[in-house]
Design a protein that fits this description.
It is built from nine helices and nine strands.
């Protein structure tokens, strides 16, 4: 039986972990907030994914939000806390991993939640899942990788469409475009993700890890520049009047009044 490292714990109010075979299943547990990521969840996810990276008996990871939702992105009231040393924002999206991570998506994966999905290697989604990057509707900009990853996992014009309109991407379309590996009935996502993990587990772990690392190294060649440009966009947005208006409108549940300043 695969055992977790001695002394390993995560905050149960933010995430729980289970081991199935050689697969670590990480479930976000902040359901009352639609799994919005605050500092405590960032730390919990970072701790869990460090365990996946460091435990030689763990070969595959699954990240899920449970059967009702995946993740609504950053907690706009509390913020997502400090990026971690190994995982970056959310403890996830800046991470260089050696082992495959599968996103098992039910319900909403909005904003940063969608960016977490993009940071995973494979995606299993419910037919009722909802993908979107709504930052522009709040006077903000996607800051957790989507500005450069969206056009990597989707056709360029589709990436632009999502980033510029904030519109949703249907699971069936995400599958057709190659972002989602499998679309399954609601309530069956984790089971199918575990079956996918089992198919990976059947192969030599080192072979899988080396294959993943080579593909990721080539795909992420320009990531440093992508993060640099994202920070530049974030700074400009942060200095604008519209960003304050968008956030205020969100909390006040009203339509924003943009000025373009």
């Amino acid at each position: 039986m695969t055992a977790l490292s001695k002394g390993f714990t995560v905050n149960p109010d933010r995430a729980k972990v289970d081991v199935v075979g050689h697969t670590l299943v990480v479930t976000m547990t902040r359901h009352a907030k639609r799994n919005a990521i605050d500092g405590a969840m960032t730390e919990a996810l970072d701790t869990a994914l460090n365990e996946l990276d460091d435990n030689p008996d763990l070969w595959v990871g699954i990240l899920t939000g449970g059967t009702e939702m995946f993740c609504a992105g950053t907690d706009m009231a509390a913020t997502s806390g400090t990026p971690t040393e190994r995982g970056g924002v959310y403890g996830v999206v800046g991470r260089t991993r050696r082992k495959p991570l599968i996103a098992a998506v039910e319900g909403v994966a909005f904003g940063g939640g969608f960016e977490v999905v993009m940071a995973c290697d494979l995606v299993v989604a419910s037919a009722e899942a909802r993908f979107a990057l709504p930052e522009v509707k709040r006077g903000l900009v996607a800051t957790s990788g989507a500005l450069f990853r969206a056009s990597r996992v989707l056709p360029l014009n589709v990436a632009k469409y999502l980033l510029l309109t904030g519109a949703e991407l249907a699971p069936a379309e995400a599958h057709r475009l190659g972002l989602v590996a499998e679309v399954v009935e609601q309530g069956h996502v984790l089971a199918n993700a575990l079956a996918l993990a089992s198919a990976i587990e059947a192969n030599a772990p080192i072979s899988v890890q080396q294959s993943l690392q080579v593909v990721d190294a080539l795909a992420s060649t320009d990531d440093a520049r992508g993060w640099e440009l994202t920070q530049q966009a974030r700074r400009i947005i942060g200095e604008s009047e519209d960003s304050s208006e968008g956030v205020s409108a969100f909390f006040e549940r009203r339509a924003p009044q943009w000025t373009g300043r």
